[in-house]
Amino acid sequence: MGENLTTSVRNIFNQVAPVYDLLNHLFSLNIDRYWREKTVSRFSSLQNLRVLDVCTGTGDLAIEFAGKSFCKEVVGVDFSKQMLAVAEAKIKKKKLQGKIKLVQGDVMRLPFPDSSFDLVTISFGLRNLSDRKSGIGEIVRVLKKDGILAILEFSPVQDGAVAYFYRFYLNTLILLSVIW
Asked: String of b and e for 76-89 (b: at least 16 CB within 10 Å)?
């Protein structure tokens, strides 16, 4: 069952890739951009970081890190080939080739040795993992001993108008964009 769910989620992200950034910016009222900038700035006092951005999607967070001098290496991994294609186009447009390595892979089976990265990030992807405990375990495996895991995620809202719009976004607009 887990593999069928993974395949279904991958297919959805492959289909939504061309409009994913637009939807993220629109439905977060562009706050997602600010959150990424703020996340990256939290690590500016560190040096020579090897950064892994899992569930990188269209690469926004990886791109934000790649432009910083405190990062020695930035790797973005995602299981959606179409999302990575969008990320690659953005990297070329920003002239960051050679500063970011994109890898097609699954966060549940990361293709990296143990203790490889100083910092692992996941932005707006934790909610999509079929097994969060296993996914986080795999992330911890590739983190160095004193490494840092940074999670950037929308909090589920239970009540009120914001909850209504959040559920509408997740359950209706994302699915409609897949149909386009």
From this structure: bbbbbebbbebbbe
Running DSSP on this structure, what letter comes out for residue 126? Answer: G
**9, two tokens:** 């989620």
CA-based R_g, the chain, Å: 16
> CATH number for the domain including 61?
3.40.50.150
Predicted structure pTM score: 0.82
Q: Domain limits at 68?
A: 2-179
Number of domains, the chain:
1
Q: How many CA atoms lie within 13 A of 111 on its CB side?
A: 10
pLDDT in tens, 55-96: 999 999 999 999 899 999 999 999 999 999 999 999 999 999
Q: What is the DSSP string of 89-107?
A: HHHHHTT-BTTEEEEE-BT
